[in-house]
Specification:
427 residues, four-stranded antiparallel sheet, 4 helices, disordered C terminus, F-box-assoc_dom_typ1
Protein backbone atom coordinates (compact mmCIF):
# COMPACT_ATOMS: atom_id res chain seq x y z
CA UNK A 1 0.00 0.00 0.00
CA UNK A 2 1.44 3.36 -0.99
CA UNK A 3 2.10 5.87 1.76
CA UNK A 4 1.60 8.76 -0.65
CA UNK A 5 -1.28 10.94 0.51
CA UNK A 6 -2.44 13.86 -1.65
CA UNK A 7 -1.18 17.20 -0.44
CA UNK A 8 -4.72 18.59 -0.58
CA UNK A 9 -5.88 15.96 1.92
CA UNK A 10 -2.98 16.64 4.28
CA UNK A 11 -3.68 20.35 4.10
CA UNK A 12 -7.34 19.69 4.89
CA UNK A 13 -6.39 17.61 7.92
CA UNK A 14 -3.95 20.20 9.26
CA UNK A 15 -6.45 23.01 8.75
CA UNK A 16 -8.68 21.38 11.38
CA UNK A 17 -5.99 21.75 14.02
CA UNK A 18 -5.88 24.63 16.45
CA UNK A 19 -3.52 27.41 15.45
CA UNK A 20 -1.45 26.75 18.56
CA UNK A 21 -0.68 23.20 17.34
CA UNK A 22 2.70 22.65 15.72
CA UNK A 23 2.82 20.57 12.53
CA UNK A 24 6.40 19.45 13.18
CA UNK A 25 5.32 16.44 15.27
CA UNK A 26 3.41 14.96 12.30
CA UNK A 27 6.60 14.45 10.27
CA UNK A 28 6.97 11.00 11.78
CA UNK A 29 3.66 9.72 10.33
CA UNK A 30 5.29 8.51 7.10
CA UNK A 31 8.01 9.41 4.60
CA UNK A 32 5.76 11.44 2.34
CA UNK A 33 4.46 13.46 5.29
CA UNK A 34 8.01 14.07 6.47
CA UNK A 35 9.06 15.25 3.01
CA UNK A 36 6.01 17.49 2.60
CA UNK A 37 6.06 18.94 6.11
CA UNK A 38 9.75 19.79 5.73
CA UNK A 39 9.20 21.73 2.52
CA UNK A 40 9.60 25.49 3.23
CA UNK A 41 6.90 26.54 0.76
CA UNK A 42 4.35 24.16 2.32
CA UNK A 43 5.25 25.32 5.83
CA UNK A 44 4.83 28.95 4.81
CA UNK A 45 1.46 28.31 3.15
CA UNK A 46 0.18 26.28 6.10
CA UNK A 47 1.40 28.73 8.72
CA UNK A 48 -0.52 31.57 7.12
CA UNK A 49 -3.70 29.59 6.43
CA UNK A 50 -6.29 31.42 8.52
CA UNK A 51 -9.95 32.04 7.97
CA UNK A 52 -11.79 35.33 8.42
CA UNK A 53 -13.28 33.95 11.63
CA UNK A 54 -9.77 33.91 13.15
CA UNK A 55 -9.47 37.68 12.83
CA UNK A 56 -9.15 39.38 16.22
CA UNK A 57 -8.67 42.86 17.64
CA UNK A 58 -6.02 43.60 20.24
CA UNK A 59 -6.54 46.50 22.63
CA UNK A 60 -3.57 48.08 24.37
CA UNK A 61 -4.15 50.42 27.27
CA UNK A 62 -2.27 51.83 30.25
CA UNK A 63 -2.98 50.37 33.66
CA UNK A 64 -1.90 52.32 36.70
CA UNK A 65 -1.19 50.76 40.07
CA UNK A 66 -0.05 53.50 42.42
CA UNK A 67 2.76 55.32 40.65
CA UNK A 68 3.49 52.39 38.33
CA UNK A 69 2.20 52.53 34.74
CA UNK A 70 2.13 49.40 32.57
CA UNK A 71 0.69 48.62 29.16
CA UNK A 72 -1.92 45.85 29.23
CA UNK A 73 -3.18 43.86 26.23
CA UNK A 74 -6.49 42.10 25.65
CA UNK A 75 -7.95 40.25 22.65
CA UNK A 76 -11.54 41.06 21.66
CA UNK A 77 -13.92 39.72 19.04
CA UNK A 78 -14.23 41.96 15.94
CA UNK A 79 -17.93 41.06 15.70
CA UNK A 80 -19.21 41.32 19.27
CA UNK A 81 -16.29 43.35 20.70
CA UNK A 82 -16.43 41.03 23.70
CA UNK A 83 -13.18 39.83 25.34
CA UNK A 84 -11.99 36.50 23.92
CA UNK A 85 -10.13 35.64 27.13
CA UNK A 86 -11.21 36.20 30.74
CA UNK A 87 -8.07 38.16 31.57
CA UNK A 88 -5.44 40.26 29.78
CA UNK A 89 -2.68 38.50 27.86
CA UNK A 90 0.25 37.20 29.87
CA UNK A 91 3.49 38.14 28.14
CA UNK A 92 5.87 35.15 28.42
CA UNK A 93 8.96 37.32 27.95
CA UNK A 94 7.99 39.43 30.97
CA UNK A 95 8.80 36.51 33.25
CA UNK A 96 12.29 36.12 34.74
CA UNK A 97 13.72 38.91 32.59
CA UNK A 98 16.87 40.45 34.09
CA UNK A 99 16.05 43.78 35.70
CA UNK A 100 18.02 46.57 37.23
CA UNK A 101 16.99 48.19 40.47
CA UNK A 102 14.20 50.66 39.82
CA UNK A 103 13.26 49.19 36.44
CA UNK A 104 9.58 49.46 35.58
CA UNK A 105 9.25 47.94 32.09
CA UNK A 106 6.32 48.59 29.83
CA UNK A 107 5.57 46.71 26.61
CA UNK A 108 3.95 48.31 23.58
CA UNK A 109 3.01 46.82 20.19
CA UNK A 110 4.68 48.72 17.34
CA UNK A 111 3.91 46.31 14.48
CA UNK A 112 1.75 43.34 13.48
CA UNK A 113 2.28 41.01 10.50
CA UNK A 114 1.12 37.44 9.78
CA UNK A 115 0.28 36.76 13.41
CA UNK A 116 3.62 38.04 14.72
CA UNK A 117 3.79 41.09 16.96
CA UNK A 118 6.74 43.43 17.18
CA UNK A 119 6.92 44.76 20.72
CA UNK A 120 9.15 47.40 22.24
CA UNK A 121 10.05 47.14 25.91
CA UNK A 122 10.52 50.57 27.43
CA UNK A 123 12.78 50.63 30.47
CA UNK A 124 14.08 54.17 30.25
CA UNK A 125 14.99 56.90 27.85
CA UNK A 126 18.03 55.05 26.47
CA UNK A 127 17.08 51.49 27.27
CA UNK A 128 14.66 49.83 24.85
CA UNK A 129 14.51 46.22 23.68
CA UNK A 130 12.62 44.87 20.68
CA UNK A 131 10.82 41.53 20.90
CA UNK A 132 9.05 39.40 18.28
CA UNK A 133 6.19 37.35 19.70
CA UNK A 134 3.60 34.92 18.37
CA UNK A 135 0.76 34.99 20.94
CA UNK A 136 -0.88 31.90 19.38
CA UNK A 137 2.17 29.69 20.00
CA UNK A 138 3.74 31.69 22.88
CA UNK A 139 7.03 31.69 20.96
CA UNK A 140 9.14 34.85 21.22
CA UNK A 141 12.59 36.18 20.48
CA UNK A 142 14.39 39.10 22.09
CA UNK A 143 16.29 40.80 19.29
CA UNK A 144 20.02 41.49 19.57
CA UNK A 145 21.02 45.05 20.43
CA UNK A 146 21.66 47.51 17.66
CA UNK A 147 25.33 48.01 16.74
CA UNK A 148 24.54 51.66 16.02
CA UNK A 149 22.84 52.71 19.26
CA UNK A 150 25.37 54.04 21.73
CA UNK A 151 24.22 54.22 25.37
CA UNK A 152 26.66 57.07 26.05
CA UNK A 153 24.71 59.31 23.68
CA UNK A 154 21.31 60.91 24.21
CA UNK A 155 19.22 59.47 21.39
CA UNK A 156 15.51 58.89 20.84
CA UNK A 157 13.63 56.31 18.82
CA UNK A 158 11.74 58.10 16.04
CA UNK A 159 9.77 55.21 14.57
CA UNK A 160 9.64 51.43 14.27
CA UNK A 161 8.11 49.46 11.40
CA UNK A 162 7.59 45.71 10.99
CA UNK A 163 6.73 43.82 7.81
CA UNK A 164 7.29 40.77 5.62
CA UNK A 165 9.71 40.60 2.70
CA UNK A 166 8.03 38.12 0.34
CA UNK A 167 10.97 38.16 -2.09
CA UNK A 168 13.35 36.80 0.54
CA UNK A 169 10.81 35.06 2.79
CA UNK A 170 12.04 37.15 5.68
CA UNK A 171 10.59 39.40 8.37
CA UNK A 172 12.16 42.84 8.59
CA UNK A 173 12.15 45.64 11.13
CA UNK A 174 13.12 49.19 10.23
CA UNK A 175 13.97 51.51 13.08
CA UNK A 176 14.90 55.17 13.01
CA UNK A 177 16.46 57.10 15.84
CA UNK A 178 17.88 60.57 16.10
CA UNK A 179 20.14 62.68 18.28
CA UNK A 180 21.33 66.27 18.43
CA UNK A 181 25.02 66.79 17.78
CA UNK A 182 26.65 68.29 20.85
CA UNK A 183 27.52 71.97 20.64
CA UNK A 184 26.02 72.39 17.17
CA UNK A 185 22.32 71.68 17.56
CA UNK A 186 22.18 69.78 14.28
CA UNK A 187 19.85 66.79 14.38
CA UNK A 188 20.95 63.51 12.82
CA UNK A 189 18.59 60.75 11.70
CA UNK A 190 19.87 57.20 11.40
CA UNK A 191 17.85 54.27 10.08
CA UNK A 192 18.65 50.60 10.44
CA UNK A 193 17.10 47.29 9.42
CA UNK A 194 16.87 43.97 11.24
CA UNK A 195 16.54 40.65 9.40
CA UNK A 196 14.89 37.80 11.29
CA UNK A 197 16.39 35.21 8.93
CA UNK A 198 19.92 36.59 9.41
CA UNK A 199 19.39 37.70 13.01
CA UNK A 200 21.37 40.90 12.57
CA UNK A 201 21.07 44.66 12.19
CA UNK A 202 22.61 46.94 9.57
CA UNK A 203 22.57 50.66 9.00
CA UNK A 204 20.94 52.05 5.86
CA UNK A 205 22.95 54.51 3.75
CA UNK A 206 19.84 56.69 3.55
CA UNK A 207 18.69 57.83 6.98
CA UNK A 208 15.28 58.62 5.52
CA UNK A 209 12.96 61.50 6.24
CA UNK A 210 12.06 62.17 9.89
CA UNK A 211 9.32 59.68 10.78
CA UNK A 212 6.59 59.98 13.37
CA UNK A 213 6.83 58.56 16.87
CA UNK A 214 6.95 54.81 17.38
CA UNK A 215 3.52 54.89 19.07
CA UNK A 216 1.97 55.34 15.63
CA UNK A 217 1.91 51.90 13.97
CA UNK A 218 2.72 52.15 10.26
CA UNK A 219 0.32 50.65 7.74
CA UNK A 220 1.70 48.02 5.35
CA UNK A 221 0.53 47.63 1.77
CA UNK A 222 2.15 45.68 -1.08
CA UNK A 223 5.53 45.36 0.59
CA UNK A 224 5.73 48.96 1.81
CA UNK A 225 5.32 50.57 5.21
CA UNK A 226 3.57 53.93 5.43
CA UNK A 227 3.70 56.56 8.16
CA UNK A 228 1.41 59.53 7.72
CA UNK A 229 1.52 63.13 8.88
CA UNK A 230 -0.27 66.39 8.20
CA UNK A 231 1.19 69.04 5.89
CA UNK A 232 -0.34 71.88 7.91
CA UNK A 233 -1.61 74.74 5.81
CA UNK A 234 -1.22 72.87 2.51
CA UNK A 235 -4.31 70.78 3.30
CA UNK A 236 -2.87 67.39 2.59
CA UNK A 237 -1.24 64.27 3.92
CA UNK A 238 2.37 63.25 3.60
CA UNK A 239 3.12 59.54 3.56
CA UNK A 240 6.67 58.56 4.42
CA UNK A 241 7.08 55.09 2.94
CA UNK A 242 9.74 52.41 3.25
CA UNK A 243 10.06 49.66 0.64
CA UNK A 244 10.95 46.47 2.53
CA UNK A 245 12.60 44.74 -0.45
CA UNK A 246 14.65 47.63 -1.86
CA UNK A 247 15.24 49.29 1.54
CA UNK A 248 14.47 52.73 0.10
CA UNK A 249 12.48 55.61 1.59
CA UNK A 250 9.99 57.66 -0.41
CA UNK A 251 7.70 60.60 0.31
CA UNK A 252 4.22 60.78 -1.22
CA UNK A 253 1.89 63.76 -0.74
CA UNK A 254 -1.87 63.64 -1.23
CA UNK A 255 -3.94 66.84 -1.05
CA UNK A 256 -7.60 67.12 -0.14
CA UNK A 257 -10.11 69.79 -1.06
CA UNK A 258 -11.56 71.19 2.14
CA UNK A 259 -12.61 74.61 3.40
CA UNK A 260 -10.87 74.05 6.71
CA UNK A 261 -7.49 72.71 7.82
CA UNK A 262 -7.24 69.55 9.88
CA UNK A 263 -4.92 68.21 12.52
CA UNK A 264 -2.96 64.99 11.97
CA UNK A 265 -5.42 62.16 11.23
CA UNK A 266 -5.55 58.45 11.85
CA UNK A 267 -5.43 56.44 8.63
CA UNK A 268 -6.34 52.94 7.46
CA UNK A 269 -4.86 51.48 4.29
CA UNK A 270 -6.07 48.37 2.50
CA UNK A 271 -5.75 47.00 -1.02
CA UNK A 272 -8.70 49.00 -2.39
CA UNK A 273 -8.72 52.38 -0.70
CA UNK A 274 -7.55 54.52 2.19
CA UNK A 275 -9.70 55.94 4.98
CA UNK A 276 -8.59 58.94 7.03
CA UNK A 277 -10.27 60.20 10.20
CA UNK A 278 -9.50 63.88 10.84
CA UNK A 279 -10.10 65.78 14.09
CA UNK A 280 -11.81 69.08 13.40
CA UNK A 281 -9.51 71.99 14.07
CA UNK A 282 -10.40 75.01 16.21
CA UNK A 283 -8.03 77.89 16.87
CA UNK A 284 -9.61 78.64 20.22
CA UNK A 285 -9.08 75.03 21.28
CA UNK A 286 -5.31 75.31 21.60
CA UNK A 287 -2.97 75.54 24.52
CA UNK A 288 -0.17 78.09 24.85
CA UNK A 289 2.06 75.97 22.61
CA UNK A 290 -0.50 75.80 19.81
CA UNK A 291 -1.40 72.15 20.43
CA UNK A 292 -5.02 71.12 20.02
CA UNK A 293 -6.69 69.76 23.13
CA UNK A 294 -10.04 68.19 22.25
CA UNK A 295 -12.34 68.16 19.25
CA UNK A 296 -16.11 67.92 19.23
CA UNK A 297 -16.26 66.19 15.85
CA UNK A 298 -14.14 64.08 13.52
CA UNK A 299 -14.50 63.93 9.74
CA UNK A 300 -14.15 60.62 7.89
CA UNK A 301 -12.66 60.83 4.39
CA UNK A 302 -11.93 58.05 1.89
CA UNK A 303 -9.34 58.11 -0.89
CA UNK A 304 -11.02 56.03 -3.58
CA UNK A 305 -7.93 55.72 -5.79
CA UNK A 306 -4.46 55.51 -4.32
CA UNK A 307 -2.34 58.66 -4.51
CA UNK A 308 -4.91 60.50 -6.66
CA UNK A 309 -5.84 63.68 -4.78
CA UNK A 310 -8.99 64.21 -6.84
CA UNK A 311 -10.48 60.94 -5.55
CA UNK A 312 -10.90 62.18 -1.95
CA UNK A 313 -14.49 62.01 -0.74
CA UNK A 314 -15.88 63.12 2.62
CA UNK A 315 -17.83 60.17 3.93
CA UNK A 316 -19.12 60.97 7.40
CA UNK A 317 -18.96 63.34 10.37
CA UNK A 318 -18.59 61.73 13.79
CA UNK A 319 -19.81 63.99 16.61
CA UNK A 320 -19.03 63.40 20.26
CA UNK A 321 -21.56 61.31 22.21
CA UNK A 322 -23.69 63.12 24.82
CA UNK A 323 -21.70 64.18 27.87
CA UNK A 324 -18.40 63.16 26.28
CA UNK A 325 -15.64 64.75 24.21
CA UNK A 326 -13.65 62.74 21.69
CA UNK A 327 -9.97 62.99 22.56
CA UNK A 328 -8.38 60.76 19.92
CA UNK A 329 -9.00 58.05 17.36
CA UNK A 330 -6.92 55.04 18.40
CA UNK A 331 -8.02 52.42 15.86
CA UNK A 332 -9.71 51.78 12.54
CA UNK A 333 -10.84 48.51 11.01
CA UNK A 334 -11.78 47.45 7.49
CA UNK A 335 -15.13 46.38 8.98
CA UNK A 336 -16.02 50.08 9.33
CA UNK A 337 -15.46 50.23 13.08
CA UNK A 338 -13.69 53.21 14.60
CA UNK A 339 -12.35 53.35 18.14
CA UNK A 340 -12.27 56.63 20.04
CA UNK A 341 -10.91 57.68 23.41
CA UNK A 342 -13.46 59.92 25.11
CA UNK A 343 -13.45 62.00 28.28
CA UNK A 344 -16.37 63.38 30.35
CA UNK A 345 -17.28 66.93 29.33
CA UNK A 346 -17.73 68.12 32.91
CA UNK A 347 -14.26 66.85 33.91
CA UNK A 348 -12.32 69.01 31.42
CA UNK A 349 -10.92 72.19 33.01
CA UNK A 350 -10.87 75.68 31.50
CA UNK A 351 -7.52 74.99 29.84
CA UNK A 352 -8.87 71.91 28.11
CA UNK A 353 -6.87 69.55 30.33
CA UNK A 354 -8.03 66.23 31.72
CA UNK A 355 -5.86 63.86 33.75
CA UNK A 356 -8.23 60.99 34.54
CA UNK A 357 -9.00 57.72 32.78
CA UNK A 358 -10.48 57.66 29.31
CA UNK A 359 -13.34 55.55 27.96
CA UNK A 360 -12.72 53.50 24.83
CA UNK A 361 -15.89 53.58 22.72
CA UNK A 362 -16.46 52.00 19.28
CA UNK A 363 -18.30 53.82 16.50
CA UNK A 364 -20.13 51.79 13.85
CA UNK A 365 -20.12 53.58 10.52
CA UNK A 366 -22.92 51.40 9.11
CA UNK A 367 -25.38 52.57 11.77
CA UNK A 368 -23.83 55.92 12.68
CA UNK A 369 -24.01 54.99 16.36
CA UNK A 370 -21.59 54.60 19.23
CA UNK A 371 -21.36 51.28 21.03
CA UNK A 372 -20.92 50.54 24.72
CA UNK A 373 -17.78 51.47 26.60
CA UNK A 374 -15.18 48.74 26.08
CA UNK A 375 -12.47 49.77 28.52
CA UNK A 376 -12.07 52.37 31.24
CA UNK A 377 -8.47 53.49 31.22
CA UNK A 378 -6.00 55.25 28.98
CA UNK A 379 -6.18 53.36 25.71
CA UNK A 380 -3.02 53.57 23.63
CA UNK A 381 -4.09 51.79 20.45
CA UNK A 382 -6.33 49.14 18.93
CA UNK A 383 -4.56 46.70 16.59
CA UNK A 384 -7.20 45.59 14.10
CA UNK A 385 -5.18 43.37 11.74
CA UNK A 386 -4.15 40.58 14.12
CA UNK A 387 -4.79 37.05 12.84
CA UNK A 388 -3.42 34.05 14.80
CA UNK A 389 -0.96 31.97 12.80
CA UNK A 390 1.51 29.09 13.14
CA UNK A 391 4.46 31.14 11.91
CA UNK A 392 7.45 29.84 13.87
CA UNK A 393 10.38 32.07 14.72
CA UNK A 394 12.48 28.91 14.95
CA UNK A 395 12.03 28.34 11.20
CA UNK A 396 13.83 31.64 10.56
CA UNK A 397 16.94 30.95 12.60
CA UNK A 398 20.06 31.39 10.44
CA UNK A 399 21.88 28.19 9.52
CA UNK A 400 25.13 29.81 10.54
CA UNK A 401 25.70 33.07 12.42
CA UNK A 402 28.26 34.00 9.76
CA UNK A 403 25.87 33.65 6.81
CA UNK A 404 24.31 36.92 5.66
CA UNK A 405 22.33 37.00 2.43
CA UNK A 406 21.22 40.61 2.02
CA UNK A 407 22.32 43.37 -0.32
CA UNK A 408 23.13 45.50 2.72
CA UNK A 409 25.92 43.15 3.92
CA UNK A 410 28.48 45.89 3.37
CA UNK A 411 26.85 48.28 5.83
CA UNK A 412 26.40 45.56 8.42
CA UNK A 413 30.08 44.61 8.34
CA UNK A 414 31.16 48.23 8.34
CA UNK A 415 29.18 48.73 11.55
CA UNK A 416 31.05 45.88 13.17
CA UNK A 417 34.27 47.83 12.55
CA UNK A 418 33.13 51.05 14.20
CA UNK A 419 35.21 51.84 17.28
CA UNK A 420 33.81 55.24 18.20
CA UNK A 421 30.44 56.93 17.92
CA UNK A 422 31.81 59.84 15.91
CA UNK A 423 33.18 57.54 13.21
CA UNK A 424 29.63 56.65 12.20
CA UNK A 425 29.51 59.84 10.12
CA UNK A 426 32.41 58.57 7.99
CA UNK A 427 30.34 55.72 6.51
Amino acid sequence: MSDEIPEELITGILSKLQVSSSIARFRCVCKSWRRLLSDPSFIRKNNLASSASDHQFMVEWTDRTGDVFRHVHRLISPDTLEPLLPSPLQLPFDQNRPRRAGDCPSFSVVGCCNGLLCIVEYRGRKDEDLILWNPATSEFRVLPPSPVANPSREFLIGAVGFGFDSERDDYRIVRQFFFDELGIGRRHYISEVYSLRNNCWWRLPDGGCPLLGSWRIPQCRKGKMYWWRSTGQSKGLVFDSFDIASELFEVVEVHYDSEKPYDTPNCLLNEESMVAVFPEYYEENQDEYGDRKFSTSWDVWVLLKYWVSESWMKLYVVTSPPGMIIESCVGLSSGLKYFFNTVPTDMVDEHGDYSGDRSLIPFHLETGEFGDVLIEGICVKVITNYVPSRVSLQDYLPQSPNIISNVSDFYHHKLMEIDTWDSIFDL
